[in-house]
Amino acid sequence: MSHGSTHHRDDALRSVPHPGERLAFNGDNAFQRELRRRVEADLRGRGRGQRDSAAMYAKTAIILTVFFASYVALVLFAQAWWQALPLTLLLGTAMAGIGFNIMHDGGHQAYSRHRWVNKIMAFTLDLVGGSSYIWQWKHARYHHTYVNIARHDSDIDLGVLGRLSPEQPRRPWHRFQHIYLWLLYPVTAIRWHLYGDFRDLLTGRIGARPFKRPRGGDLVLLVLGKLVFFTLAFGLPLAFHPPGTVVLFYAIVSAVAGFLLAIVFQLAHVVEEADFPQPDDTSGRMETPWAIHQLQTTVDFARDNRVLGWLIGGLNFQVEHHLFVRISHVHYPAVAKVVEVTCREFGVPYHAHRTLFAGIASHYRWLRRLGAVPAAGEPPLPHGGGQGPSRAGSATHALPRG
Ligand SMILES: [Zn+2]
For residue 358, how many C-alpha atoms fall within 13 Å in the half-sphere facing its CB? Predict the structure, then answer.
Protein backbone atom coordinates (compact mmCIF):
# COMPACT_ATOMS: atom_id res chain seq x y z
CA MET A 1 0.00 0.00 0.00
CA SER A 2 1.35 3.39 -0.85
CA HIS A 3 1.05 6.46 1.28
CA GLY A 4 1.87 8.53 -1.75
CA SER A 5 -1.45 10.31 -1.98
CA THR A 6 -4.67 10.96 -0.14
CA HIS A 7 -6.34 8.89 -2.78
CA HIS A 8 -4.49 5.74 -1.73
CA ARG A 9 -4.99 6.46 1.92
CA ASP A 10 -8.72 6.87 1.51
CA ASP A 11 -8.84 3.55 -0.30
CA ALA A 12 -7.12 1.90 2.62
CA LEU A 13 -9.52 3.50 5.07
CA ARG A 14 -12.53 2.43 3.05
CA SER A 15 -11.38 -1.17 3.17
CA VAL A 16 -11.65 -1.02 6.95
CA PRO A 17 -15.36 -1.27 7.66
CA HIS A 18 -15.46 0.18 11.12
CA PRO A 19 -17.97 3.01 11.40
CA GLY A 20 -17.14 5.46 14.12
CA GLU A 21 -13.46 4.55 13.94
CA ARG A 22 -12.90 6.05 10.53
CA LEU A 23 -10.12 8.52 10.85
CA ALA A 24 -9.08 11.05 8.24
CA PHE A 25 -6.12 13.41 8.18
CA ASN A 26 -5.97 17.02 7.13
CA GLY A 27 -5.88 16.91 3.32
CA ASP A 28 -3.28 19.65 2.77
CA ASN A 29 -0.49 17.59 1.23
CA ALA A 30 1.67 20.39 -0.22
CA PHE A 31 4.61 19.51 2.03
CA GLN A 32 4.34 15.81 1.26
CA ARG A 33 4.14 16.40 -2.51
CA GLU A 34 7.20 18.65 -2.54
CA LEU A 35 9.16 16.28 -0.30
CA ARG A 36 8.35 13.31 -2.50
CA ARG A 37 9.29 15.22 -5.63
CA ARG A 38 12.68 16.15 -4.15
CA VAL A 39 13.48 12.69 -2.83
CA GLU A 40 12.58 11.03 -6.12
CA ALA A 41 14.62 13.60 -8.06
CA ASP A 42 17.59 13.07 -5.72
CA LEU A 43 17.62 9.30 -6.19
CA ARG A 44 17.10 9.59 -9.92
CA GLY A 45 19.83 12.22 -10.19
CA ARG A 46 22.32 9.83 -8.62
CA GLY A 47 21.21 6.99 -10.86
CA ARG A 48 19.71 5.00 -8.01
CA GLY A 49 16.57 2.93 -8.35
CA GLN A 50 14.23 2.94 -5.38
CA ARG A 51 14.13 -0.84 -5.08
CA ASP A 52 16.01 -4.00 -6.21
CA SER A 53 19.32 -2.86 -4.84
CA ALA A 54 22.20 -5.35 -5.21
CA ALA A 55 23.22 -4.51 -1.64
CA MET A 56 19.86 -5.81 -0.42
CA TYR A 57 20.17 -9.14 -2.21
CA ALA A 58 23.68 -9.60 -0.79
CA LYS A 59 22.52 -8.64 2.69
CA THR A 60 19.63 -11.10 2.48
CA ALA A 61 22.02 -13.92 1.58
CA ILE A 62 24.33 -13.04 4.49
CA ILE A 63 21.57 -12.85 7.11
CA LEU A 64 19.83 -16.04 5.98
CA THR A 65 23.17 -17.88 5.94
CA VAL A 66 23.95 -16.75 9.49
CA PHE A 67 20.42 -17.74 10.55
CA PHE A 68 20.57 -21.27 9.12
CA ALA A 69 24.22 -21.87 10.06
CA SER A 70 23.69 -20.86 13.69
CA TYR A 71 20.47 -22.90 13.81
CA VAL A 72 22.12 -26.05 12.46
CA ALA A 73 25.16 -25.60 14.71
CA LEU A 74 22.94 -25.10 17.76
CA VAL A 75 20.55 -27.97 17.12
CA LEU A 76 22.94 -30.55 15.66
CA PHE A 77 26.46 -29.81 16.86
CA ALA A 78 26.58 -27.86 20.12
CA GLN A 79 27.73 -30.16 22.93
CA ALA A 80 28.24 -27.87 25.91
CA TRP A 81 26.54 -24.76 27.22
CA TRP A 82 29.51 -22.57 26.35
CA GLN A 83 29.12 -23.58 22.73
CA ALA A 84 25.36 -23.24 22.77
CA LEU A 85 25.12 -19.84 24.43
CA PRO A 86 26.93 -17.77 21.78
CA LEU A 87 24.96 -19.62 19.11
CA THR A 88 21.65 -18.74 20.78
CA LEU A 89 22.67 -15.07 20.85
CA LEU A 90 23.66 -15.23 17.20
CA LEU A 91 20.47 -17.04 16.21
CA GLY A 92 18.26 -14.59 18.13
CA THR A 93 20.04 -11.65 16.52
CA ALA A 94 19.69 -13.24 13.06
CA MET A 95 15.95 -13.73 13.69
CA ALA A 96 15.56 -10.05 14.51
CA GLY A 97 17.80 -9.26 11.53
CA ILE A 98 15.45 -11.14 9.21
CA GLY A 99 12.58 -9.06 10.59
CA PHE A 100 14.30 -5.68 10.39
CA ASN A 101 15.98 -6.14 7.04
CA ILE A 102 14.28 -8.69 4.83
CA MET A 103 10.65 -9.12 5.79
CA HIS A 104 10.13 -5.46 6.63
CA ASP A 105 11.27 -4.22 3.21
CA GLY A 106 9.40 -7.08 1.52
CA GLY A 107 6.20 -6.48 3.46
CA HIS A 108 6.26 -2.80 2.56
CA GLN A 109 6.88 -3.53 -1.17
CA ALA A 110 10.20 -1.75 -0.72
CA TYR A 111 12.41 -4.69 -1.61
CA SER A 112 11.65 -5.15 -5.28
CA ARG A 113 9.45 -3.85 -8.06
CA HIS A 114 8.24 -7.43 -8.49
CA ARG A 115 5.33 -8.35 -6.26
CA TRP A 116 6.36 -11.98 -5.98
CA VAL A 117 9.86 -11.08 -4.76
CA ASN A 118 8.34 -8.87 -2.06
CA LYS A 119 5.97 -11.65 -1.12
CA ILE A 120 8.78 -14.18 -0.69
CA MET A 121 10.84 -11.73 1.36
CA ALA A 122 7.83 -10.86 3.53
CA PHE A 123 7.24 -14.58 4.09
CA THR A 124 10.58 -14.86 5.91
CA LEU A 125 8.63 -13.48 8.89
CA ASP A 126 6.61 -16.70 8.97
CA LEU A 127 9.90 -18.60 9.10
CA VAL A 128 10.75 -16.86 12.39
CA GLY A 129 7.29 -17.22 13.91
CA GLY A 130 5.07 -14.29 12.91
CA SER A 131 2.36 -14.29 10.25
CA SER A 132 3.26 -11.95 7.39
CA TYR A 133 -0.44 -11.81 6.50
CA ILE A 134 -1.48 -10.43 9.89
CA TRP A 135 1.57 -8.16 9.93
CA GLN A 136 0.26 -6.53 6.73
CA TRP A 137 -2.78 -5.36 8.65
CA LYS A 138 -1.25 -4.67 12.01
CA HIS A 139 1.95 -2.98 10.94
CA ALA A 140 1.72 -1.86 7.31
CA ARG A 141 -1.82 -0.51 7.60
CA TYR A 142 -2.78 0.32 11.16
CA HIS A 143 0.54 1.19 12.72
CA HIS A 144 1.87 3.11 9.73
CA THR A 145 -1.30 5.07 9.04
CA TYR A 146 -2.22 5.86 12.64
CA VAL A 147 1.15 6.11 14.38
CA ASN A 148 0.85 6.90 18.09
CA ILE A 149 -2.89 7.52 17.92
CA ALA A 150 -4.22 5.66 20.93
CA ARG A 151 -6.89 3.03 20.12
CA HIS A 152 -5.90 3.06 16.45
CA ASP A 153 -2.21 2.07 16.58
CA SER A 154 -2.17 -1.28 18.37
CA ASP A 155 1.63 -1.21 18.49
CA ILE A 156 1.50 1.28 21.37
CA ASP A 157 -1.07 -0.79 23.25
CA LEU A 158 0.45 -2.89 26.01
CA GLY A 159 -2.91 -3.34 27.76
CA VAL A 160 -2.66 -2.94 31.52
CA LEU A 161 1.05 -3.75 31.49
CA GLY A 162 2.26 -0.35 30.45
CA ARG A 163 1.30 3.20 29.62
CA LEU A 164 3.07 4.40 26.50
CA SER A 165 0.72 7.22 25.50
CA PRO A 166 -0.74 9.98 27.72
CA GLU A 167 -4.15 8.96 26.32
CA GLN A 168 -3.97 5.59 28.03
CA PRO A 169 -5.18 5.16 31.62
CA ARG A 170 -2.57 5.14 34.33
CA ARG A 171 -2.51 2.23 36.76
CA PRO A 172 -0.72 2.28 40.10
CA TRP A 173 1.94 -0.22 38.98
CA HIS A 174 2.93 1.97 36.03
CA ARG A 175 4.96 3.88 38.61
CA PHE A 176 7.55 1.16 38.10
CA GLN A 177 7.12 0.64 34.35
CA HIS A 178 10.43 2.32 33.53
CA ILE A 179 12.02 -0.60 35.41
CA TYR A 180 9.90 -3.67 34.72
CA LEU A 181 9.07 -3.08 31.05
CA TRP A 182 12.68 -3.83 30.11
CA LEU A 183 12.12 -7.31 31.52
CA LEU A 184 8.92 -7.75 29.50
CA TYR A 185 10.41 -6.69 26.15
CA PRO A 186 12.19 -10.04 25.77
CA VAL A 187 8.83 -11.82 26.11
CA THR A 188 7.25 -9.96 23.17
CA ALA A 189 8.45 -12.44 20.51
CA ILE A 190 7.33 -15.45 22.55
CA ARG A 191 3.93 -13.86 23.04
CA TRP A 192 3.73 -13.20 19.30
CA HIS A 193 4.72 -16.81 18.44
CA LEU A 194 2.44 -18.59 20.85
CA TYR A 195 -0.47 -16.20 21.32
CA GLY A 196 -0.71 -12.96 19.30
CA ASP A 197 -1.41 -14.23 15.79
CA PHE A 198 -3.76 -16.95 17.06
CA ARG A 199 -5.75 -14.49 19.16
CA ASP A 200 -6.09 -12.10 16.21
CA LEU A 201 -7.24 -14.95 13.96
CA LEU A 202 -9.83 -16.11 16.47
CA THR A 203 -11.21 -12.66 17.32
CA GLY A 204 -10.93 -11.22 13.79
CA ARG A 205 -9.55 -8.05 15.36
CA ILE A 206 -6.21 -6.35 15.75
CA GLY A 207 -6.50 -4.24 18.86
CA ALA A 208 -9.77 -2.35 18.45
CA ARG A 209 -9.80 -2.66 14.65
CA PRO A 210 -11.31 -5.50 12.62
CA PHE A 211 -9.34 -7.10 9.80
CA LYS A 212 -10.13 -9.47 7.00
CA ARG A 213 -9.31 -13.03 8.04
CA PRO A 214 -7.11 -14.93 5.57
CA ARG A 215 -8.80 -17.14 2.99
CA GLY A 216 -7.68 -19.44 0.20
CA GLY A 217 -4.01 -19.08 -0.68
CA ASP A 218 -3.37 -16.65 2.16
CA LEU A 219 -4.73 -19.13 4.67
CA VAL A 220 -2.69 -21.99 3.19
CA LEU A 221 0.48 -19.90 3.43
CA LEU A 222 -0.30 -18.85 6.99
CA VAL A 223 -0.80 -22.45 8.12
CA LEU A 224 2.29 -23.55 6.21
CA GLY A 225 4.33 -20.79 7.87
CA LYS A 226 3.18 -21.86 11.32
CA LEU A 227 4.02 -25.50 10.56
CA VAL A 228 7.52 -24.58 9.38
CA PHE A 229 8.14 -22.37 12.40
CA PHE A 230 6.93 -24.86 15.00
CA THR A 231 8.92 -27.61 13.30
CA LEU A 232 12.08 -25.50 13.41
CA ALA A 233 11.51 -24.22 16.95
CA PHE A 234 10.30 -27.43 18.61
CA GLY A 235 9.79 -30.44 16.31
CA LEU A 236 13.29 -30.85 14.95
CA PRO A 237 15.15 -29.93 18.17
CA LEU A 238 13.01 -32.46 20.10
CA ALA A 239 14.41 -35.23 17.92
CA PHE A 240 17.88 -34.50 19.31
CA HIS A 241 17.40 -32.99 22.79
CA PRO A 242 15.26 -33.43 25.90
CA PRO A 243 12.11 -31.23 26.08
CA GLY A 244 13.46 -29.05 28.92
CA THR A 245 16.54 -28.12 26.89
CA VAL A 246 14.47 -27.36 23.80
CA VAL A 247 12.09 -25.07 25.69
CA LEU A 248 14.95 -23.31 27.48
CA PHE A 249 16.84 -22.58 24.27
CA TYR A 250 13.70 -21.59 22.41
CA ALA A 251 13.04 -19.10 25.20
CA ILE A 252 16.54 -17.61 25.14
CA VAL A 253 16.69 -17.27 21.35
CA SER A 254 13.23 -15.67 21.27
CA ALA A 255 14.08 -13.38 24.18
CA VAL A 256 17.07 -11.99 22.30
CA ALA A 257 14.98 -11.43 19.16
CA GLY A 258 12.04 -9.98 21.13
CA PHE A 259 14.20 -7.55 23.05
CA LEU A 260 15.84 -6.22 19.88
CA LEU A 261 12.50 -5.85 18.07
CA ALA A 262 10.86 -4.09 21.01
CA ILE A 263 13.72 -1.66 21.59
CA VAL A 264 14.00 -0.57 17.97
CA PHE A 265 10.25 0.09 17.88
CA GLN A 266 10.16 1.96 21.18
CA LEU A 267 13.04 4.27 20.25
CA ALA A 268 11.18 5.35 17.12
CA HIS A 269 7.85 6.28 18.67
CA VAL A 270 7.87 6.05 22.46
CA VAL A 271 10.32 8.74 23.49
CA GLU A 272 9.98 12.25 24.91
CA GLU A 273 10.22 13.95 21.53
CA ALA A 274 7.41 11.94 19.93
CA ASP A 275 3.90 13.32 19.91
CA PHE A 276 0.71 11.38 20.70
CA PRO A 277 -1.96 13.38 18.87
CA GLN A 278 -5.67 12.61 18.97
CA PRO A 279 -8.44 13.39 16.46
CA ASP A 280 -10.37 16.59 16.94
CA ASP A 281 -13.33 16.04 19.28
CA THR A 282 -15.98 17.52 17.00
CA SER A 283 -14.80 16.75 13.47
CA GLY A 284 -13.22 13.41 14.37
CA ARG A 285 -10.38 14.31 12.00
CA MET A 286 -6.68 14.66 12.58
CA GLU A 287 -5.63 18.30 12.55
CA THR A 288 -2.38 17.72 10.69
CA PRO A 289 -1.73 16.29 7.24
CA TRP A 290 -0.56 12.67 7.22
CA ALA A 291 3.13 13.34 6.41
CA ILE A 292 3.49 15.93 9.16
CA HIS A 293 1.81 13.53 11.57
CA GLN A 294 4.56 11.00 10.76
CA LEU A 295 7.24 13.59 11.54
CA GLN A 296 5.58 14.53 14.82
CA THR A 297 5.29 10.96 16.03
CA THR A 298 8.57 9.46 14.82
CA VAL A 299 12.17 9.96 15.91
CA ASP A 300 15.46 8.92 14.30
CA PHE A 301 18.49 7.83 16.30
CA ALA A 302 22.21 7.24 15.73
CA ARG A 303 22.01 8.23 12.09
CA ASP A 304 25.78 8.18 11.73
CA ASN A 305 26.17 4.65 13.10
CA ARG A 306 26.51 2.66 9.89
CA VAL A 307 27.06 -0.71 11.56
CA LEU A 308 23.91 -0.33 13.63
CA GLY A 309 22.01 0.88 10.57
CA TRP A 310 23.09 -2.20 8.61
CA LEU A 311 22.01 -4.54 11.39
CA ILE A 312 18.58 -3.02 12.05
CA GLY A 313 17.54 -2.50 8.46
CA GLY A 314 17.91 1.28 8.50
CA LEU A 315 15.29 1.56 11.23
CA ASN A 316 17.42 4.15 13.00
CA PHE A 317 15.97 6.24 10.15
CA GLN A 318 12.35 5.58 11.13
CA VAL A 319 11.30 9.07 10.01
CA GLU A 320 12.43 8.28 6.48
CA HIS A 321 10.86 4.83 6.67
CA HIS A 322 7.51 6.27 7.71
CA LEU A 323 7.54 8.91 4.99
CA PHE A 324 8.77 6.61 2.23
CA VAL A 325 7.71 3.08 3.07
CA ARG A 326 8.24 1.88 -0.50
CA ILE A 327 11.85 2.99 -0.84
CA SER A 328 14.48 0.36 0.03
CA HIS A 329 16.09 1.01 3.40
CA VAL A 330 19.57 1.13 1.86
CA HIS A 331 18.64 4.64 0.62
CA TYR A 332 17.49 6.09 3.95
CA PRO A 333 20.73 7.95 4.79
CA ALA A 334 20.50 9.82 1.46
CA VAL A 335 16.75 10.38 1.84
CA ALA A 336 17.33 11.76 5.35
CA LYS A 337 19.41 14.65 4.02
CA VAL A 338 16.60 15.74 1.70
CA VAL A 339 13.97 15.30 4.43
CA GLU A 340 15.94 17.32 6.94
CA VAL A 341 16.49 20.26 4.60
CA THR A 342 12.87 20.25 3.41
CA CYS A 343 11.53 20.10 6.97
CA ARG A 344 13.64 23.07 7.95
CA GLU A 345 12.30 25.02 4.96
CA PHE A 346 8.67 24.21 5.72
CA GLY A 347 9.05 24.67 9.49
CA VAL A 348 8.10 21.04 10.12
CA PRO A 349 9.68 19.28 13.12
CA TYR A 350 12.35 16.64 12.53
CA HIS A 351 13.49 14.70 15.57
CA ALA A 352 16.67 12.71 15.92
CA HIS A 353 18.77 11.42 18.78
CA ARG A 354 22.46 11.60 18.14
CA THR A 355 23.20 8.17 19.57
CA LEU A 356 21.51 4.88 20.41
CA PHE A 357 22.07 5.56 24.09
CA ALA A 358 20.41 8.99 23.88
CA GLY A 359 17.35 7.28 22.44
CA ILE A 360 17.30 4.64 25.16
CA ALA A 361 17.66 7.29 27.87
CA SER A 362 14.78 9.28 26.37
CA HIS A 363 12.57 6.16 26.25
CA TYR A 364 13.39 5.47 29.91
CA ARG A 365 12.51 9.04 30.96
CA TRP A 366 9.24 8.96 28.98
CA LEU A 367 8.17 5.71 30.65
CA ARG A 368 9.01 7.08 34.08
CA ARG A 369 7.12 10.26 33.42
CA LEU A 370 3.96 8.56 32.09
CA GLY A 371 3.99 6.15 35.00
CA ALA A 372 4.24 8.97 37.51
CA VAL A 373 1.67 11.46 36.21
CA PRO A 374 -2.03 10.79 36.89
CA ALA A 375 -4.11 10.68 33.71
CA ALA A 376 -6.97 12.89 34.90
CA GLY A 377 -7.10 16.18 36.76
CA GLU A 378 -3.59 17.19 35.79
CA PRO A 379 -2.70 19.50 32.93
CA PRO A 380 -1.99 17.41 29.82
CA LEU A 381 1.59 16.42 29.17
CA PRO A 382 3.36 18.69 26.75
CA HIS A 383 4.02 17.02 23.43
CA GLY A 384 7.05 17.16 21.19
CA GLY A 385 5.74 17.97 17.76
CA GLY A 386 7.90 21.01 17.32
CA GLN A 387 5.34 23.52 18.59
CA GLY A 388 6.63 25.51 21.51
CA PRO A 389 9.99 25.24 23.19
CA SER A 390 11.65 21.85 23.34
CA ARG A 391 11.74 20.16 26.70
CA ALA A 392 14.76 20.44 28.90
CA GLY A 393 17.36 17.76 28.49
CA SER A 394 15.97 16.29 25.30
CA ALA A 395 17.91 16.20 22.09
CA THR A 396 15.23 17.34 19.74
CA HIS A 397 14.94 19.05 16.36
CA ALA A 398 17.14 18.61 13.39
CA LEU A 399 20.66 17.88 14.49
CA PRO A 400 23.64 18.96 12.46
CA ARG A 401 25.16 16.00 10.71
CA GLY A 402 28.64 14.72 11.47
ZN1 LIG B 1 7.27 -0.39 8.79
Answer: 18
